[in-house]
Design a protein that fits this description.
single chain, two-stranded antiparallel ribbon, 8 helices, binds iron/sulfur cluster
Length: 207
């Protein structure tokens, strides 16, 4: 029997995991973060535009792929791992989903990340993304370790900022398109951030 309530429930759950903004389909696979960024909207509410990104529990591979199918990946030009959390904390899942997305669809895949995955996992994880991920956008967020700590409260201390820079360098070697981004926030020296990004050999974006 047709159950409208259940259907709406499934659609709502799917919309939390996979949501469209503009020409991109975004995947929200965790609410966990390695950083606690001072400017992050999630500390006020887990809402982005009309999208409710608060996860009741972290989704499985099957749940994410089902959500992508419900939202229907048409009329988009990329699929992006980006929600209110750091996707690369769930590295194994990211790799599995990216592989399946590449098999099913032809869209480029982007990951928006805080750039701390190598510190979190204790190894260089970039080779695991090579060939699956087309673009990595790394939140550089500052031009020095002190400012980075003030803004992002990294649990890795001074290694947090150098770890982000190292991650950008390593990503540049294996991922076709790497972007360093910053939020235009009081205390952030945008010119110095731009110069640092360019010295790391990647493009720069203010978000
Ligand atoms: S890494 Fe991103 S999601 Fe996590 S606290 Fe910082 S801005 Fe928010």
């Amino acid at each position: 029997m047709y159950d409208d309530k259940n259907l709406k429930g499934r659609q709502k759950k799917a919309a939390t995991l996979a949501y469209k903004i503009g020409d991109s389909l975004y995947l929200n696979i965790t609410n966990r973060c390695s950083n606690t960024c001072i400017f992050c909207p999630k500390f006020n509410q887990y809402k982005l535009y009309s999208h409710d990104l608060l996860l009741e529990k972290e989704p499985s591979f099957e749940e994410v792929m089902a959500a992508v199918a419900v939202v229907e990946p048409t009329g988009i030009d990329e699929i992006v791992f980006c929600g209110f959390g750091e996707s690369l904390i769930r590295l194994e899942l990211v790799v599995r989903i990216a592989r399946e997305l590449k098999r099913r669809y032809s869209y480029p895949i982007r990951i928006n990340t805080d750039g701390q995955a190598n510190l979190v996992h204790g190894r260089n994880i970039v080779p695991e993304l090579a060939g699956l991920v087309d673009t990595i956008s790394v939140s550089l967020n500052a031009s020095d370790a002190e400012t980075y700590m003030q803004l992002c409260d990294t649990p890795f201390g001074d290694d947090g900022f150098s770890g982000v820079c190292d991650f950008i360098r390593l990503a540049k070697q294996q991922i076709p398109n790497v972007i360093a981004s910053v939020v235009d926030y009081p205390g952030v020296d945008l010119d110095a951030c731009r110069a640092l990004a360019l010295s790391l050999g990647v493009s720069f974006r203010v978000r």
